[in-house]
Amino acid sequence: MTAENKPPVVFRKEWLAAIDTLRVREKAHTREGDAIAAARRRLPMTEVDPSAPLVGGDGPVPLIDVFEGRTQLFVSYHMWHNGHTAADQCEGCTFFTGQVRELSYLHQRDVTFAVFCQGPYDESDRYRRFMGWDMPWYSVPAESHERLLADRHFGMKAIYLRDRDRVYETYWTTGRGVEPMAPSYGILDMTVYGRQETWEDSPPGWPQPYETLGQQFRKDGRPTAQWARIAAGHDDDLHGGQSSTGGSGCCS
């Protein structure tokens, strides 16, 4: 570490004053986020087919049953590369999906969280088990793509509301709009070097080794989170052979 890649050192009084100045902007940012959330709650909604079929661990299931009796449903649409090994699966979807683990707080507020994967159920469910994820997991058959995605793509997040036997979509987002699913980014944003991605506005000399075409979610040719599973001895081979490519950078 050199003087070029670390902040200047000042006395504590000056340091606290600088933080107090930034805090004004942070509070304004929080209040604007609250205002946007309030506007989101006032959006209109559109009806979707409650019978749109999905495939879960017990076979075919209609969309309305995914609510598990609750009134709201948050769906993460997970990209899938058919026929590819674990190393070549979507690093961005792996990053975001894998950080949603404790669901009890959502359930307390009548919200169900589920992943809708575009691959065959048996194949993608094996990936879920390899990753150690225990959230509700479904695959979306081709006949339901238009009913649920409506010309959009996997990688998006969608919110649904159930009113007895009818279902409505209230909101959807993609790209950086899905970042609330990834507390790692929020934690990194509070560190001195941030996300260390090339797009960030950081001082000269700050480390920025990561581009944003999937590299930020990969390590040595694999989605980063896979390495802990491999070290623990979990099987990662979906198709009887090791991957030879580095992934597509999808949904990043």
Written description of the protein model:
- By secondary structure, the chain is an alpha+beta fold.
- Helix content is 31%, strand content 19%.
- It has eight helices and ten strands.
- The protein has helices at 12-41, 63-66, 91-97, 104-108, 121-131, 142-149, 183-189, 226-231, and strands at residues 46-48, 53-56, 59-62, 72-78, 111-117, 137-139, 157-163, 166-173, 218-219, 222-223.
- A six-stranded mixed sheet has the order 1-8-7-4-5-6.
- Strand 9 and strand 10 (222-223) form a beta hairpin.
- The model is unreliable at 240-252 (pLDDT under 50).
- This is DUF899 domain-containing protein.
- It comes from Streptomyces spiralis.
Provide keyphrases for this structure.
DUF899_thioredox; two-stranded antiparallel ribbon; 31% helix; 252 residues; 6-stranded mixed β-sheet; DUF899 domain-containing protein; globular; alpha+beta; single chain
